[in-house]
Amino acid sequence: VHVVESGGGLVQPGESLRLSCAASGFTFSRYAVRWARQAPGKALEWVAGIFPDGDRTFYADVVKGRFTISRDTEKNMVYLQMNNLRPEDTALYLCGREGSPAEGGILYGQGTQVTVSS
Known about the structure:
globular, 4-stranded antiparallel beta sheet, 7-stranded mixed beta sheet, mainly beta, single chain, 11 strands
């Protein structure tokens, strides 16, 4: 059981990226899923979340209006569309399955690096 993030890269300010999160060994649609990020020397920061129904989404104020979280139930994937990227968005982005305590809580992958620089 694990998740795998992909889609990161080096972009210039104002550009866009779409991150993908693939589930392995479980069905994403049963769980709430979050994206979080960690910049060098900083604590892990929650960025966005989506409920199992796929209709309810939540965003940190710093990304609201620029980032969109979504899920594709058929493909068992969760995405983070990031528009109008800023240098301060530079971080390792992690996808997390929000499991129960019995399931070990939040299951994160290895992350995908996003670097925003001119």
